[in-house]
Amino acid sequence: AQRVTQPEKLLSVFKGAPVELKCNYSYSGSPELFWYVQYSRQRLQLLLRHISRESIKGFTADLNKGETSFHLKKPFAQEEDSAMYYCALADNTDKLIFGTGTRLQVFP
Amino acid sequence: ETGVTQSPTHLIKTRGQQVTLRCSSQSGHNTVSWYQQALGQGPQFIFQYYREEENGRGNFPPRFSGLQFPNYSSELNVNALELDDSALYLCASSSDRGMGGYTFGSGTRLTVV
Asked: What are the tens digits of pLDDT across the range B46-82?
């Protein structure tokens, strides 16, 4: 079955600390993976996608097919990173399968 | 702010009623998807339209139906509302069937009483 798992509902760190938001997936084909972010009172928006191998706002994510993971990382968290983060997988019909999300809280 | 516009923002309906939610996609986006997001959950895929034809459907009953119009606006219709249909309904559009990522609307909060 196709599934995206985000094991942490809440992740709290202090400003300047490293951040890793975990995402594991289950998919039989070749997945397209994304991270979406929702800041307070804003709409869900694309943060990054694995196919572009880009770094956005200091965040990176590497697809590890062996571990079926797509963890989101940032070396030094900022207060403005506080938000809800969703990992998502696009299947071969282009629909997105979302995880349950992880709330990141960055304390000053 | 340009992008995807949804209406209404909030709606209260009675069990058994029917509801239509509307979405205006970003200009040039030929793919639109609808998602249901229950409290504390990630968005769940309802269905997708590509160039006015249904292009995929999630695990939702037939009383959830949709339309996409030539101007790329779309509708989500839900018949015989149930209490469990209470959720945030999100519309998302893309120009390339989602590979470049979807642009999401702010959602319609539906409450069924």
From this structure: 999 988 999 889 999 999 999 999 888 999 999 999 9
> Quick check: A72 and A83 in contact, CB under 8 A?
no
A36 near A47, Cβ under 8 Å? yes
Which residues, including other chains, have CB under 8 Å from residue A47's CB and lie 6 or more apart?
Answer: A34, A35, A36, A37, A56, A57, A59, A72, A85
Classify burial at B29, counting beta carbons within 10 Å of its beta carbon; exposed 0-12, middle 13-18, buried 19 or more.
Answer: middle
The sign of the CA dihedral A70, A76, A81, A83 is positive
| Size of chain A in residues | 108
Measured between beta carbons, which residues in chain B are less than 8 angstroms from residue A96?
33, 35, 43, 45, 92, 98, 102
Q: What is the DSSP track for B6-68?
A: EE-SEEEE-TT--EEEEEEPPTT--EEEEEEE-TTS--EEEEEEETTEEEEE-S--TTEEEEE
Per-residue confidence (pLDDT) for residue A51, from 0 to 100:
78
Cβ-based contacts of B53 with chain A (< 8 Å)? none
pLDDT digit string (tens) for B102-113?
A: 899 999 999 999
Q: What does the alpha-carbon distance between residue A93 and residue B48 come to, in Å, rounded to a whole number? A: 9
